[in-house]
Amino acid sequence: MVRSVVDRDDTDALSRTHVVLIGMMGVGKTTVGKRVAALLERPFVDADAELVQRSGRTVADWFATSGEPAFRQVESELLADLLNRPEPSVLAAGGGVVIETVNRKRLCQPDVFVVWLRADPAFLAKRVARKAHRPLIADDPVSTLSRLADVREPWYEEVADAVVDVARVHDREQRPKAVLAEHVAHAVRVHEAAGSVEL
C-alpha cells in the first residue's frame, strides 16, 4: 500500500517536519491532507486555496489572464514561503508543482517529507469534474490527464519519499479517505522515528 521510494539521507530524517502531498488533480490531496493534519496534530494548508486567498485571484484566472508561466512563478514563491515556516505542517500541493526545477529541489530538502498519492488517469477522470478551478482539463479528461501524467509522474517519483496507491484503497475500503490518511500518517511517523519508510 505504501512503499519507500527515496531514502535521501537517514541522518536528516528526524528533522523532517513538513509533510507535502503531491499527485495529479482529483487524487484527493486536500481531503486526505486535512485528515493527515488532524492525525499528526499539525496545521493544514491547501496551496491553491492559499494562493487564491493571498492574491485574490483564482487559479483559473491566473491561467486565463496572466498565463501558466506567471502562475507557476507565484506558485513557486508560495511553496518557498510555506516550506520556510518553522512550524511543522501538512501541505496539499498543486498538481503541477513538480514542473519547476526549483520546486523539486525544495521538495527534496531534508526538512520535507513528500508523499505521492498515485492513481491512474482513468480513475482520476471519473472523479474530476469540469470545474472552473481546473483550467488544464479539456473536453477529454482521460486523454488530458494521461498526457499530464506522462510528463509529471517521473518528477513525482523523483521527489517522493513514499507512495500511496489511491485506487487500491478505494477498491478495498469503505472509508477510503480515512484509510489513506492513516497510511500517510503512519508513513510519516515511521520515517520520523526511524529515518526511513519500511512498509
Percent range for β-strand residues: 5-15%
CATH topology term: Rossmann fold
Instruction: Outline the low-pLDDT stretches.
Output: 1-14
The ordered H/E elements are: EEHEHHHEHEHHEHH
Corresponding CATH superfamily: P-loop containing nucleotide triphosphate hydrolases
The helix tally amounts to 9
- The overall number of domains is 1
Q: What's the shape?
A: globular
Which CATH architecture is right? 3-Layer(aba) Sandwich
* Strand runs, count: 6
How confident overall, as mean pLDDT?
A: 86
- What structural class results from the helix and strand content? alpha/beta
The largest sheet, given as strand count, sense and whether it forms a barrel, is:
6 strands, mixed
CATH class placement: Alpha Beta
* Widest beta sheet: strand line-up: 1-6-5-2-4-3
Q: What is the radius of gyration computed over CA atoms, rounded to a whole number of angstroms?
A: 16 Å
Query: N- to C-terminal separation?
Result: 8 Å
